[in-house]
Amino acid sequence: MATLTTHQIELVEKILTLKKEKNAVILVHNYLRPEVYEVADFIGDSLGLCEEAAQTKADIVVFSAVHFMAESAALLLPHAKVLLPNYNAGCALADMITAEQLRAFKLEHPGAAVVCYINSSAEVKAESDAVCTSANAAEVVRNLPEKKILFVPDKNLANFVARLVPEKEIIAWEGYCPIHHKITVEQVMKAKADHPNAKVIAHPECPEDILRIADKVASTTGMMKFAEQNENDEFIIITECGLTQRMIKEMPEKKFLSVCNMCYDMKKTTLESILEALEQEQFEIMIPEHVAVRARKSFKRMFELTGGVSKIPSLVE
Ligand code: 13P
Ligand code: SF4
To answer: Using CB atoms within 10 A as the burial measure, which of 123, 187, 214, 274 is most buried?
Structure first.
């Protein structure tokens, strides 16, 4: 349990009561503020959150993360109300490509399949052949029949996948997550020199020179699992700062050092905004049906290529 102020304890109690009354669930990304974990029904990475959202029987899903994640839940759960507590919680990486830019990119490379990272808008997903997340990007690319793949919008994840799946020709869009991209290999080498016994765990949105020296590259939940299951007791965590906070809290017997930057969009969701979201039933994610139908197809392809489509009731005809 995070150390909460009296005001935060009151907010938590109000949220839990209202959540029950309205048959709502609260899904929370790994990077969120620690006090928000206290009201979570589930905490996870993009893939885990999608799977959890898609299977819920709740009438309302309060998606405590950023816009593209709530939008993904709304695509997979068309009959529930999906709420994003702070409508301004966006993602700089997702904003690096528009549907129009993707259409032009496709025209330059006829015959290539398009894989879009989940950190993208519903419109971009609608223009793609398959979605992927940081947890399954290599599997999605490997299992597509096409040899030539346009990978958007994250070039760092694209380069990482290209190394894992050398039989494919990957053409990457020039996007990146500024939070991960500005971490330098010098920072990591310094942390390694100071803590020579620590294992290095990095998120695949980091630049290639960092990923090449990491002991493990994984999604945020994959990073947590590696630290949990590895016999080492010291780790250098390279991603957004919130994940290390969660690891310190959940694995007090291990030592975590962080080379990280803060994603302010992930911190925009507060206990106050979650309470307001539940009270006012705001801000509901609405996706035009002509976009949703095509974006859902790209999601379906992801789950088909990774063997998980049976887990998503809305995608099973
Ligand atoms: P995960 O799916 O690994 O949690 O990553 C989401 C994200 O936005 C990382 O910056
Ligand atoms: Fe987007 Fe980067 Fe923030 Fe993740 S950390 S939500 S990719 S801006």
So the answer is: 274
